[in-house]
Sequence to fold (229 residues):
Amino acid sequence: MTMQSSAPQRLGKADWTIHLLSATSGGADIVAFLKFHMVFTSAMTGNLALFGIAVGEGHMLSSTHSLAALLGFIAGIILGTLWKEHLHALRILLCIEAAFLGIYAVTWLNAGFPYNGAWLYVLIMASALSMGLQSVAARLINVAGVPSVVFTNTLTSIVITFTENFRRKSAFPFAWRQQLAALFAYLVGAILFSIFLFNIPILAMILPFYLVVIALFIHWPSTNNPSGG
Fold:
């Protein structure tokens, strides 16, 4: 049974899990874009566009940064897919994601902000792999079709639903509010990580790990229900 058919008319554990993951992906994109040579590790559409720009301008070194993010994201999806049929798939995926975000944090704490070299690629790929895993986890949570890692389709759905319901003067469905809340969480994550990055950088390093751990503990009491409802 999906969240759309079983969700109560209030935000539940599944929503809060998605909000934490959405904030994490918003932060991942901000940090990657500002510190890792203008790449995205969550929003692969934007990352592909940046890869195309780099190749088109002949900046082959810059293109390898976007390529590393793309490959890391794909690897995360593959890893997540291998586990998604497990009874406790969401627990496992969030544990693996937290592990890679831990690698990301430890690498960053030890290497600082590497402008090139192997450490830069470790950071890019660890972040992107985590986001790939998260994209599979979000499908298991299944809150109003929110993917947690990219919000173009979600924004489209929000605007379409708003326009149609406003024109008909009908009530907005609960799924619309769920989507709006998740989009807001992504935006808040992006804003907070931007502030932390320039004022308290250690928080930008370690907070993704803790956000996913909190999401894991919110979900942990669930057994057979991946949505945690």
In short: The chain has one domain: 12-219. Residues 12-219 form a domain with the Growth Hormone; Chain: A; fold (CATH 1.20.1250). Confidence is low (pLDDT under 50) at residues 1-7, 223-229. Residues 174-199 form the longest helix (26 residues).
